[in-house]
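In response to reviewer comment 3 from the previous cycle, which asked for concrete evidence that the modeling workflow produces usable outputs, we include below a single protein chain processed end to end. The sequence was submitted unchanged, and the resulting structure tokens are shown without manual editing.
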Amino acid sequence: MADTVSGQITDSVSQTNVKVLGDAPAQALGSLYQSLGQTTSLAGGNQTTEQQQTNVLHQATTTMGVTLLYAIGTAVGSQASIDIANDKQAPVAKA
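The workflow returned the following structure tokens.
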């Protein structure tokens, strides 16, 4: 076997190693930019979902508040009808 290696082979291997080392920063930055893009996209999606859920909660709260306001009027009217039916007089406000 020969103890020497052709200069063309060593040059080829050296150039390949240099190319790999030269490409590494670009690939690392590409991966970083993809990760940042995906993270930013997920954050925006989460904010949109949170806003939608908050709007649903506010709508439900408003609906229940209005329902309670209407129910108060009904309850007072019902109590007044019962009082009238039982010949009770309404309390008189003192001045």
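Residues 12 and 51 are 58 Å apart (CA to CA). We consider this sufficient to address the reviewer's concern, and the full set will be provided in the supplementary archive.
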